[in-house]
Amino acid sequence: MLIYLVTRHNSSPIDWYLELWGHSLPMPVEVIYYEDLPKRRSLPVGTYIFSDLERLDGPLLTVAGQVWQQLAHHDRPMALLNHPYRSMRRYELLRTLREQGINAFDIYRLTEHRRPQRFPVFIRGENDHRGSLTGLLNTAEELEAAIADLAERGENPYDKVITEYCNVADADGVFRKYSAFVVGDRVLPLHVAGHRHWVVKTRRLETDAIAEDHAALLRDNPHADQIRQIFSLARIAYGRIDYGFLGDRLQVWEINTNPSIVLPANQRATDATMDQFRRSLADAFAAIAPPPRDRPAPLTLTWPRPDQDLGKGFIERTSDWFPGLSTPQKAQLRRVLRRIKQRLR
Predict the structure, then answer these.
(1) Domain of residue 159, residue span
(2) Whether residue 306 has pLDDT greater than 60
């Protein structure tokens, strides 16, 4: 069995995949929302993918970490992909790749003291996938003006990063974005997308050269070893990597742990070039989630008691586990938890 953990508001990628391609899978798949975990008293035994890590913070991240810990210590060994705490997010990944000499560009948090020494740069969200929030900023003065503009628009500076621009255009001014999935130890090439703009989101430019690169990527999977090394460095075992080439140097843009796999009907779902990828992905999922030899009992979850020393603010964080509650209801829940805590002392 394969269990896919994801945030409720960002479940479309796995939902679309199961709707359109789920028939290819030889095993059942259960999608569980992180927000629902505190209400669970048990979980099935199987292979777990902790996806959407970029969107976990605060209480949800704590919950995911507690679930991983209990799954990891269950009597029945289970495959667990993407540790909620140890897997790198965008900033740590790109900083590490720069320090390791893999990436030629650097990244900076908007709120840190360091500032770029090389331009142009652009500003984007640290953990979202909206792309750049600015155009290319060519000087320190343009950067500071953009930061002031974002503040004026009410953007939160604590989740924004500055990224140095890396020009990977070829001699004809075409930018290529390569993408591949990693599932366990398997690297599955996806596509080569081309565009004349430096932000490449989709396969909008079709040329003979791009078509040849795409065919070679699917046929030869030439970057598999490098990609495995990068995922190992990032401590990520499931996700999609987007990358380009600066000359012959592979440059990593990001790793998305809850990537879109296939879009809704009458878009890419019927693309004949995706059939190889569909079959390869089903095989990769089957490899990490083989059928059990028996029917193991579910894992019984245990949640911390209010009287345990969990650090300052546990009761306050607990009330946030229930987003459907109104503010007065959350206040009432906190009062009840405090009374229970006092009685248990």
Answers:
(1) 106-164
(2) no
